[in-house]
Specification:
Elements lengths: L4 E6 L9 E7 L6 E9 L5 H15 L7 H22 L7 E10 L4 E7 L3 E6 L2 E4 L6 H7 L5 H5 L25 E6 L5 E5 L1 H4 L4 H8 L5 H14 L6 E7 L38 H6 L8 H22 L16 H16 L4 E5 L7 E3 L3 E2 L4 E7 L3 E4 L8 E3 L5 E5 L2 E3 L3 E5 L4 E4 L2 E3 L3 E5 L29
Parallel strand pairs: 11-14, 12-15, 13-16, 14-17, 15-18, 16-19, 17-20, 18-21, 19-22
Antiparallel strand pairs: 1-10, 2-3, 3-4, 4-5, 5-8, 6-7, 6-9, 9-10
Helix pairs in contact: 1-2
Amino acid sequence: MANNFFGLTDTGRVRGNNEDAFIVQLSADGEYILAAAIDGVGGYSGGEIAAALARETIIDQLAKPGGNIISMMAEALLKANEKIYQEKIEVKEHESMACVLTLAVVDVKNNEFHYIHVGDTRLYLLRDGSLIKVTKDQSFVGYLEDSGRLTEEAAMSHPKRNEINKALGFNTGLENDIDYFETGSSPFLPGDMILLCSDGLTDLVPRKDITEILLSDFGIEVMVQRLIDNANSKGGKDNITVVLVKNDRPVQQQAVNPMSASKKKVLTPAVPNRDQDDEPDVVSEDAAKSKAGKNGAPLSVWLLMLCAALSLVIIYLLFLRPKIEIPVPEKVVIADTAESSSEQLFYQALNSGKSDTLVLNDSSFRQPIILTRSINISRDTLYILARGKIVFQPDSAFTGPAFRIPASVKNIVLNGMIIDGFEVGIESQTKNLKLIGIQFLDCPVPVRYQFGNTPDRFMNGSLKEIFLKADSLQTIQP
């Protein structure tokens, strides 16, 4: 891996100082890439200090990532939050300081990245020519844009664009608020690129222009500079920070080694055993013609007899042999490779994620996820968020539900996906299931609550505590 990550921060055309900071470097053990865009809040009275404290703490805490990486990332942000808050208490001039940031730990070796986010900095994933916004802005205007109530253009010019709901330094005791940070993991395939940036870029440069630059043939350093120049050309109203990381590993393909010429098979005719006193191996043409077989018969006679015998065998096989019915094997339906890959990609994302949140983007799942078996949720807590059009469909030979939720789980949230063509969409043995904006197409039974049967006991109670409703509005929550 060489020249596959780069970052830069710029003061812009209006501000007198730069409150932004960034991280883009290898971890101490060289196994991961640390990447972050940090935006300080508080102007001359501390924004730079808050960003610097966060940067220093993250680098120190994530020197050697391992184990549950998202937990390590969360711990780093909690420590940074305490340091910033303590600075606010000790220095009165810094009482309004805070910072927002987006942090990614990239594991290129295993083709995945993990992220944690607070505020309105952003993380994007570029794959197959599409730029997908991974994180959600933790602001009112950001919520309106992410939910489709505001267009990108309207959000960029909204007067409350920069009013944020969450940041490091606002409060203490964040360890008791598990929803304060947005976290997740995602496949990071060869050719993918992630962009981390401050709002100094995205408030001025639309996604279309960002995508065009990232799809150019320029090197990664030139791309970063062009993004910053683009924001400055549109006014440069804020500090601008851009960090890019690319997975430049080649696509792994299974190769079949051709057989070398020296290993070609050579067919050698069988030679009858001879005594040492037999005729020599090389004979004249006349001698070969008159050579007799074992019984003294000419060779031509033996050839005629052999041909006659072969003719009799052929006649028997074609006309005289009793007919034997050969059973026809049942038709085997082989799943389409793309559909099989989509299911494998889903399980890879589900099983490789270290956090309780799984984000499914339609850049990764352009085609429906074809299930050959039910998705059995075994975790205590899991939040599956679909961004874009994520569709689950059954394989032609599969008749079970799309999702099975056992009684042992504590909190399962399914958000924003489409479940299409299942006899039963979701089968749950627990009430600890929340559905947000789920669309069921051609599902006779969208949700089935399954009771554990105890034949030797009586059952009492009601179902009034289970509440589901149909709504004309798809409400996708962050």
